[in-house]
Design a protein that fits this description.
31% of the residues lie in helices and 25% in strands. The protein is an alpha/beta fold. The chain folds into two domains: 184 residues, Rossmann fold; 144 residues, 3-Layer(aba) Sandwich (Rossmann fold), CATH 3.40.50.2020. The strands form three sheets. Strands 10-9-8-11-12-13-14 form a seven-stranded mixed sheet. Strand 11, helix 7 and strand 12 form a beta-alpha-beta unit. Helix 5 packs across helix 6. It is globular, with a radius of gyration of 21 Å. It starts with a helix and ends in a 9-residue tail after the last helix.
Length: 347
């Protein structure tokens, strides 16, 4: 009897190791999963997690560079899921991938699909979320309008730059998932000591709090510190000051994205100067523009953990670890397909 109790306890641990039980990660025969060219490897992993093949779609180019799309199977009255982050990739720009997404949605709409759910793990143009001066667009809202008017019936994303972007979608739901659901269990296994979670700016305090909460679910406690920074202009930080104590601590910088890596590495150096024992960075979206990979590789960051929401454009240095979001996205798709609440992913 005692051995049976131990067996079922171990079984429960295995089942709960995913955001949702793997036993419920299934979709009905009416669901079809398609992919653009933004991140095909992530799309394949999501399909594998769901146990279904990717839909038969040709997303290519005409000789002049225009996008050519053909769906080589019936999608009438089907529930369509399109995995397409609006991110830069090895051969395509953000605009290329956004246009692919737009035309994929329109293709499904014209082919009489029952529903069209956009799975955009990275939501491009998110940093332009308000007017800071006259005569500029609010691009995050304009992209939302574009996706909505194309015919999408739902949008699922991961770690939006600011949660208010969900409100830019006027007539369709937008679900924002948290990468910390997978990051926190990974970091909890890294033999950390005297942990301090660091927000790189005041706007990221809520995200850092969320990460501390997820760590607590793993039985790990952590304090918080905040970096106060003054920007000279967009992308250029003039000065930084640390609010909190990291002396002798394993510091974890938590942020939603890393672009050139300059600000992140400067923050890491500040923590090191303030006596941090080891420096970790947990960043959801590896935008990695210009020489970011080289900058991070030469920094004081001991380990940087990123998601595969954006494919890396170059060889990652040894201090970068990539964790796949495929299981989280597959769980979300299964919830939607089965009519279950996505709140189950946050418990």
């Amino acid at each position: 009897m005692k051995s049976m109790r131990i067996f079922f306890s171990l079984l429960l641990i295995v089942v709960m190791s995913s955001p949702l039980s793997a036993l419920s990660r299934s979709v009905n025969g009416n669901a079809l999963l398609f992919s653009g060219n933004a991140n095909p490897e992530l799309s394949k992993k999501v399909a594998q997690e769901l146990g279904i093949p990717l839909g038969n779609a040709k997303v290519a180019r005409f000789n002049d560079g225009e996008i050519q799309i053909h769906i080589d199977q019936n999608v009438r009255n089907k529930d369509i899921y399109i995995v397409q982050p609006t991110c830069p990739s090895a051969d395509q720009s953000i605009n290329d991938n956004l246009m692919e997404l737009f035309l994929l949605i329109r293709t499904m709409k014209r082919a009489s699909a029952h529903s069209i759910t956009v799975i955009a793990p990275y939501y491009g143009y998110a940093r332009q979320d308000r007017k800071l001066r006259a005569r500029v667009p609010i691009s995050a809202a304009d992209v939302a309008t574009m996706i909505e008017h194309a015919g999408a019936t739902r949008v699922v994303t991961i770690d939006l730059h600011c949660g208010q972007i969900q409100g830019f979608f006027q007539n369709v739901p937008c679900d924002n998932l948290y990468a910390s659901m997978l990051f926190a269990p990974y970091m909890a296994q890294q033999d950390l000591q005297n942990i301090v979670v660091v927000s790189p700016d005041a706007g990221g305090v809520e995200r850092a709090n969320q990460f501390i909460h997820e760590l607590s679910k793993q039985g790990v406690t952590a304090d918080m510190a905040v970096i106060s920074k003054q920007r000279e202009k967009a992308g250029v930080v003039g000065s930084m000051h640390l609010i909190g104590d990291v002396k002798g601590a394993d510091a974890i910088i938590v942020d939603d994205m890393c672009d050139t890596g300059g600000t992140l590495c400067k923050a890491a150096q500040l923590l090191k100067d303030k006596g941090a024992r080891r420096i970790f960075a947990v960043i959801t979206h590896p935008v990695f523009s210009n020489q970011a990979l080289e900058t991070i590789g030469n920094s004081v960051i001991d380990q940087m953990v990123v998601a595969d929401t954006i494919p890396l454009r170059g060889k990652a240095p040894e201090n970068i670890t990539v964790i796949s979001m495929a299981a989280l996205l597959a769980d979300a798709i299964a919830c939607l397909d089965q009519g279950e609440s996505l709140s189950a992913l946050f418990r």
